[in-house]
Design goal:
It contains 19 helices and no strands. It has about 325 residues and is mainly α.
Amino acid sequence: MTAEIAPEQPLAPDLMNNLNALAKHQQAIMDKYGEGLPYQRERIVHEARFYMAQSAEAMLEAGKRLIIIKENEPYGEFTKIVTEQLGLADRTARLIMQAAIKYTSPRLESQRQTFAGLGKAKLFELMTQDDEDLAELAEGGTIVGLTLDEVDRMSVRELKAALRQDEAALKRSQQLVTEKEKQLQQLSQQLAGKTSTAATSDEQAPLNTQQWVTLTLEGVGDRLKSERLRLGLSQEIFAERCGVKKLTQYNYEKSERHPDAGYLIAAKALGVDLNYVMTGERSDEASALDVVRDEEEANLLTAFRHIPSESRDIVQRTISALSEKKAARSRA
């Protein structure tokens, strides 16, 4: 008996499309992380093992290799390579890949060496933060009120506690926002009732919270800036503590935008006199503290607050000496 050999059937169009898409995806990964070389499992595994034994920056290089392996190996093979050939737990490998993706993003790539100096464990802790916030940290700003030097000096446990504390504070703030939103809505309805009585007999719908804030805070920019200066805070620090970007704070002070209830609650927690911001009438206790005169003085005070405690005595003595010298010249 002779066996009949069936003619070779062409691949289904859908399957061909999927294979082409997979090939393009794998090539894109190689173009991005493969440094122009073709995929070779042995070489990539060897390089990943080498980089994993190095510094935090090398760990990011290892993460790039892990991404390449994952995207080029069949389903299930990646885990076997990671556990059997690299001796890593699957979760650890995924953390390393996430770190590589995070710190080689367009916004953070130029700052990669800066972050690598913090060490592997701190890189993992900071991965939950926004790229913009991390970029500002590397460029001299702060994150959760900490400068890059302060993060560097902290232990991993201290950094973790600071980040968790900030998350807890955010949750508490959100709860307060919900409660205050209700109070603002009640005030909004009262204001709407007075407006409708004075202006016209036609029925008016109650103002929503944002409309009420916008109407009430006419000229809020100048008063908000005055309060920030009174507290001796720079725009950047004040904005961060109120949960917004520096640009947003700038727009608030220019009256180009109006703050929402959540921002106002956070500002009140800093010591802002909301009665003054909203009505222009200061409370007595706020007036007694109105000591900062301009932006320059606020920036100096903010800088002083970020000086380590052991260095403050030097700054105080220097300022006192300059003050006494000026006073002596005046007497002469």
